Amino acid sequence: GGRTIPARAAAGGMQDGLDLIDALAAHPATGPRLARKLYAFFINEVDAPDASGDALIREVAAIYYARGYEIEPMVRRILLSSQFRDPRNHYARYAWPVEFVVRAIKEVGWTGFSINDTLPPLANMGQQLFEPPDVDGWGLGPRWFSTGAMLARMNFAAQLATNQKFNLREVFRSAAASPETLVAHALDRLTPPAYPDDAYRALVDYTHAGGTWTGSDAQLASKPAGLVHLIVGSAHYQFVY
Fold first, then answer.
1. Helices (H) and strands (E) in the chain, counts
2. E strand intervals along the chain
3. Spatial distance between the Cα atoms of 58 and 62, rounded to a whole number of angstroms
4. Which pLDDT score is estimated for 200?
5. pLDDT the model gives residue 115
6. What residues contact 191, with CB distance under 8 A and at least 6 apart?
7. Of 32, 41, 89, which Cα lies nearest the Cα of 60?
């Protein structure tokens, strides 16, 4: 038969585990590591922290130790910081696949879409909800953007835009005065970061292509969906606010 573990030995093993956790929590590298991770998640993971960012990270790490290893005071300090409100830190975090998909559906439309329709594209983008690859979780930041994963995002943008093209025709009808008004409406609806001049001009050129713009039903059935596809599938749209 199997051997039982004496209660005293089991209790000792549990205490050893708790002592290890306490030692890890108190380790001098733990606070700075957590502070950097929180800074990246809430403020900016695209750019290296500047001098003020480094100072904030040190302050947040100090709060961790001063407040008995609690996370809530660290998050509170970050959310109340000037860096969190700084417009230069807007769109400075890479969108997780689920953030990308939910935002796109919300901004483009969801007629004919179900939750189940999003699961295969999410898996192709590298995120199976509630099932990270290991205890370390998903690879974050730019590691979301392998060639295959980015192709999956572009394919999802194409699928969504095609699925919603008749709804988009009606949504964009009020902006049909010119290609420029159509592009402006698309950028306002989809809320990417400010488009560079050359990328904006490429969108206008796309809308002009194919003949004189008249705002006809045929043009409205194709051009808004095409603009949505180009914007949602672009590099600019892969960052969250």
1. 12, 2
2. 93-94, 239-240
3. 6
4. 96
5. 85
6. 107, 241
7. 32
Strand partners, 93: 240
Structural tokens at position 9: 């030995």
CA atoms within 13 A on the CB side of 50: 6
**Residue 234: Cβ within 10 Å count:** 18
DSSP secondary structure letter of residue 94: E
Given a contact cutoff of 8 angstroms between Cβ atoms, the answer to whether 159 and 224 are in contact is: no
Q: Which residue has the tokens 């549990």?
A: 14
**Helix, coil or strand: residue 145:** coil
| 206, 219 contact by CB (below 8 A) | no
Going by C-beta distance under 8 Å and a sequence separation of 6 or more, which residues neighbour residue 92? Answer: 43, 44, 45, 46, 47, 239
Q: CA separation (Å) from 39 to 36, 45, 47, 141, 199? A: 5, 8, 11, 13, 30
pTM attached to this predicted model:
0.85
- Which SS3 state, helix, strand or coil, does residue 96 take? coil
pLDDT along the chain (241 residues), means of 10: 54 70 92 97 96 98 97 98 96 96 96 89 94 87 94 97 96 96 96 94 95 94 96 96 87
Distance from the first to the final alpha carbon of the chain: 60
Give, in order, the Cα–Cα distances in Å from 176 to each of 97, 190, 208, 217. Answer: 32, 17, 12, 10
